[in-house]
Structure formats: C-alpha cells, structure tokens
Design brief:
single chain, about 270 residues, 8-stranded antiparallel beta barrel, mainly beta
C-alpha cells in the first residue's frame, strides 16, 4: 500500500512535475524525488526524498510564507549530498541562489517620468540607481523586480515591452518612460485616484492592500490589475476566471474608508 501511495501521480500544470496523494513528483540531475513545500504566517518549509536512495531532508525557516520563499534548494542539495556520501561519491556542487535572468541587458537604461527618474545599470546583478543611492534589482518572476532601494522599496517595479524592447517601467502609482522610447505616460483618472489608498486588515493572514491609480486604472500594488465589471465592483487579478472581487465603502468627501476584498474588510490607514 505504501508503494502505491507514493507512486501514484498525474501530470500537473507545472512543467516537469506530477502530483498525487499530496506529494509532488519531480526530477533533477537524472534523479527522481518526492517533494512538497508548506508555509504559514510565521514559517516556510520544504522536504525532498530521493526515491532511489531513500534519503530525505526537511528544512523550515522563520521566513513568512507570504514572502514567496521556500527552502527547496536547500532540501534538494541536502538529499543529493547525503546520497553521494553514502555511495562514496564526491559532494555535488551547491546550487546557485541567484535567479537566472535572460536578456538582462534589455533592462539597462535611464527611466524618467513625473515622479522622478532612475537608472538601471548592468554588472554581476542588475542595479537600480536613484538619488545618489543604488541597490540590487531582485527578479520576482516575469518582468517584475523588487529592491531594497529606499526610494523604491514600497512597491515592485514592473517593466513593459512593445515589440521586444523595454519601453516603460511601472512602480505603484508612477510610470517611468525609458530613454529613447516613444512611449507616453498615460493620463490619470482623478475620480479613480480618490479610491487609491493604503488599506489594512489587522489579521496577519491578510495584512495590507495598497490600492493605487496609474494610467487611468486601479491596481493592487504595481502588478495586480483591478478590472471594472459593475458599479463599484472590480475583478482582482489578470485571470478572466478569477473569483476575487473588490469594492469600496464608507465614503467621506469622495474617498472610501473601506476596501472590501473578497468579503474581507480593509480599513484606510494612510500613515
């Protein structure tokens, strides 16, 4: 029964992974692993089990699951290292902790807009330079980056392309046009701008929702669009099938004091 439990799996949407009975079935370096991750408000975890050798490893950190981190590289390396040692082989090379970034040079350039300007420079890692300070640009999937630069740490940076080259960068409520691009900063919508704000739910599971107006549209943060689908009703997210909904309530001088995100109330706290 244990063998049946551990071997049954069906293909998943993630390339190179199948899933069954609560276990991910993944491969790497010619080896097969049973794998899974988990996390909550206060921790993130991962385990790997090498199917052939029976070696397993588990790791957990105090990094919140909402930071989108799992120690999966660590547990796979630990399993590989123990498997090699027990077989009398040399230790494998530790995995790189840096996210590969194809076409890094395509982001390099100067960006400017009504909110100011910054420059992206190349090196060992992409770096953002503004106001006499610099910081690493950390890839966050797709065309999205995050940084600890004090002027840009509050939101992600999202780069956009037209016909291949990067033309603009978006950051929260601001748009920056890349030097040499013919792109224009889209006009704002003053009515929608009144809906923007910092909305907070005191539950650690929900936290803060930063609603911004940029280019005549509403966004949660930089990269999550809010699409109007009715009177004071928005669909949250890129997917047309998404059930996530947003609305506003308790208006004072045209500004809502409450943001309702899929039935959860977030209170305006612009401090």
């Amino acid at each position: 029964m244990a063998k049946i439990y551990a071997t049954h799996a069906v293909p998943s949407d993630s390339p190179g992974m199948s899933y069954g009975n609560g276990l991910m079935h993944v491969g790497g370096g010619g080896r097969a692993y049973l794998h899974h991750t988990g996390g909550m408000v206060s921790f993130s975890s991962s385990f790997h089990v090498d199917v052939a050798s029976g070696v397993g490893a588990f790791a957990s950190s105090t990094i919140s699951a909402f930071a989108e981190y799992r120690p999966r590289l660590l547990t796979q390396f630990a399993v590989d290292a123990l498997t090699h040692v027990t077989a009398g082989r040399q230790l494998p090379r530790p995995p790189s902790l840096e996210t590969p970034l194809p076409n890094a040079s395509s982001y390099v350039g100067r960006y400017a807009g009504p909110a100011g300007a910054f420059e992206v420079v190349a090196g060992h890692l992409l770096t953002i330079v503004a106001a006499g300070q610099s910081a690493e640009l950390q890839p966050w999937g797709g065309e999205i980056f995050r940084t600890t630069h004090p002027a840009f740490r509050d939101f992600s940076l999202m780069f956009e392309r037209k016909g291949g080259p990067v033309t603009v960068a978006s950051w929260g409520p601001a748009t920056f046009v890349r030097a040499g691009s013919t792109a224009k900063v889209p006009p704002s919508d003053p009515h929608l701008a009144k809906l923007a704000g910092r909305y907070v739910n005191d539950s650690p599971w929900l936290g803060t929702a930063q609603v911004v107006e940029r280019g005549g549209k509403l966004w949660v943060g930089t990269e999550v669009p809010m699409t109007p689908i009715g009177n004071n009703l928005w669909r949250i997210g890129d997917e047309s099938w998404s059930p996530e909904r947003g609305s506003f309530a308790d208006f004072i001088d045209g500004r809502p004091q409450v943001f309702v995100f899929s039935a959860e109330k977030f209170l305006r706290r612009n401090v």
